[in-house]
Design a protein that fits this description.
By secondary structure, this protein is α+β, with helices and mostly antiparallel strands. The chain contains four helices and eight strands; from the N terminus they run H-E-E-E-E-H-H-E-H-E-E-E. A hairpin with a 5-residue loop joins strand 3 and strand 4. The longest helix has 19 residues.
Length: about 180
């Protein structure tokens, strides 16, 4: 009887030890988020989509895209997990792969938060500053009153984008800290 008990305990420990070496898996249901918002045209809705690709943190990427209601992709950005993790490792405990995967899942979940959609992108009383890459585009946004979107590349690196009717593409209109 004792032998059977010890054998059972040994087998349980063996399986537990083997499972700890597996890479942290990402739930497929958490891999994609979509939002419909007015962006390139105030009378139609564009599709904002963020996908988390990869299984291991070193291979993971956030793929962000914006597609018009007519089906034309007007923006895409790939954000490597290794870059995000490197940016946050001083402030957040990201030492273990499981925590890194959870961090990326959280980033995916927060990416399309309401606070990141800016309506309008630039208000009439806002003034450009040293973090405004194109002052003419900034003024164009004041007149067009088109909406903007912001996303972060790190703890102190935000990118603000909007549709430029003049250029016929999405441009950054502000890049700065939090």
């Amino acid at each position: 009887m004792k032998y059977a008990f010890y054998t059972f305990i040994t087998i349980c420990l063996f399986f537990t030890a083997c499972q700890q070496d597996k890479p942290a898996a990402v739930d497929p249901a958490l891999r994609t988020k979509v939002a419909l918002r007015s962006f390139s045209d105030t009378s139609t809705l564009d599709t904002f989509k963020i996908i988390l690709k990869g299984e291991k943190p070193k291979d993971m990427e956030l793929l962000f895209s914006i597609t018009t209601s007519a089906g034309r992709q007007i923006y895409s950005k790939t954000i490597r997990a290794t870059s995000l993790i490197e940016n946050y490792k001083d402030n957040v405990d990201l030492g273990k792969k499981k925590k890194q995967v959870k961090f990326m899942e959280d980033e995916l979940g927060l990416f399309l938060d309401e606070e990141n959609f800016l309506e309008p992108a630039v208000t009439a009383d806002e003034l450009p500053d040293k973090n405004t890459p194109d002052k003419n585009f900034f003024e164009e946004l004041k007149k067009s009153e088109l909406n903007g979107f912001k996303y972060r590349l790190g703890k102190e690196s935000n990118v603000y984008i909007a549709w430029s009717e003049r250029a016929g593409k999405v441009l950054a209109y502000y890049e700065c800290c939090k």
